[in-house]
Amino acid sequence: MIQSMTGYGKATATYADKKITVEIKSLNSKAMDLSTRIAPAYREKEIEIRNIVSKTLERGKVDCYVSVEKDEENAATPINAALVENYYHQIKAIGERCHIPLPEDWFATLLRMPDVLTKNDTQELEEEEWLVVKETLEEALKQLTGFRLQEGEALERKFNEKIDNIERLLASIEPYEHERVGKIRERIVDALKKIPEAEYDKNRLEQELIYYIEKLDINEEKQRLANHLKYFRETMAQGTGQGKKLGFIAQEMGREINTTGSKSNHAEMQNIVVQMKDELEQIKEQVLNVM
After folding, report:
1. Does the structural domain 7-74+125-148 have CATH classification 3.30.230?
2. Which residues does 32 contact at the CB level (< 8 Å), separation at least 6?
3. Of the N and C termini of the chain, which has fewer Cβ atoms inside 10 Å?
4. Where are the domains of the chain?
């Protein structure tokens, strides 16, 4: 089954007093276009995170977010009590020595001093915590892949429907092919009759008509288009990673339909060709989403 490049996955886990969240979104792109936003605590693992995501998703415009939150009890910035006491003694000593009035609100003054409320986030990442982050990442990727498969299933149904329509339209051309031969002959003979002084060899006329009709023959185009439609179905059945190949096949289908239209020389046949082009255009639009 084919996969869509559109998907979304989110997973959360807890480790000690931390809540770890991984969120991944993907859209269609010709190649892997990965953007990451990773919490500072896990920044050292960014290359490994990118490798895991790229290997799993292969293609697409992907946004990956890895965040961590601590519970409220431990989230508060700690006050450096030793530094507060040191500032207190320094300020008091300077005030007494220089006869400067001491502050009335000591606490407010001391809390504004440098580094009193500085939070230290430079903790070393433990291997056990990294394993939890990695498992959470893999779970989010699993959810996204499941989403892609569901979207791929819907795309496959849509493609089969459009291919069925093109096959039906292709078969409906046949009656008009036989009809147009008589109409071409009639049109040419009528044109000659309108020129009274014109003389022509009927045998030569027949030869020219045969040559002209052979130039307008579309049997080869019909056969090639039928083969492309069949090959499109077979390629879908091969599974994931067929998006570019399906796009190439759709281009070849378009060439045969266009050639059929240019050779048709019949109003009803041209109308059918327009309908086939419309069905194919919808395939081309959606094939851009296939991985």
Report:
1. yes
2. 54, 57, 58, 59, 60, 62
3. N
4. 7-74+125-148, 78-111, 151-287
Closest to 25 (Cα-Cα) out of 166, 144, 178: 144
CA distance 266 to 218: 12
> End-to-end alpha-carbon separation of the chain, Å?
11
Total length of the chain? 291
**Is residue 152 a contact partner of residue 236, using CB atoms and an 8 Å limit?**
no
In this structure, are residues 244 and 28 in contact, taking their beta carbons and an 8 Å threshold? Answer: no
The chain-wide mean pLDDT, for the chain, equals 86
114: tokens are 């440098």
Q: What is the pLDDT of residue 165?
A: 96
Tell me if 164 sits within 8 A of 276, measured CB to CB.
no
Residues in CB range of 132: below 8 A, 6 or more apart: 13, 15, 20
pTM: 0.70
